[in-house]
Recover the amino acids of this structure.
């Protein structure tokens, strides 16, 4: 199936819900070809009063065990090395001194 001009979409299990202008909702079985328009990438700007209201609301913390999920480490650190030490920089007064320093190191 091919759907044109959807404004945004939400992934569901086994299908996608496509929204157009807040009026039309299409549910498309996967696999499907979906094209979008420029509105998909428009950021939604939050108003200052909404930010202030959000700061006052309590933040609910949910443990993974309450959701029936056990946290599993997906990444494992094999080795950690600090970055190598860099030599100090040298201040030069003019282009001639810079050129001489680069020539001395064989870079020019």
């Amino acid at each position: 199936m091919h759907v044109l001009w959807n404004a945004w979409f939400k992934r569901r299990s086994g299908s996608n819900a496509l929204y157009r202008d807040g009026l039309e909702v299409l549910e498309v079985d996967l696999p499907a070809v979906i094209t979008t328009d420029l509105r998909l990438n428009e950021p939604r700007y939050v108003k200052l009063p909404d930010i202030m209201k959000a700061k006052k609301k309590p933040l609910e913390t949910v443990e993974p065990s309450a959701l029936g999920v056990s946290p599993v480490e997906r990444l494992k650190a094999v080795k950690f090395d600090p970055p190598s030490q860099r030599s100090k920089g040298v201040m030069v007064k003019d282009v001639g001194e810079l050129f001489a320093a680069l020539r001395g190191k064989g870079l020019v």
Observations:
- The mean pLDDT is 77.
- The beta strands are 2-6, 8-12, 15-20, 24-29, 33-36.
- The radius of gyration is 28 Å.
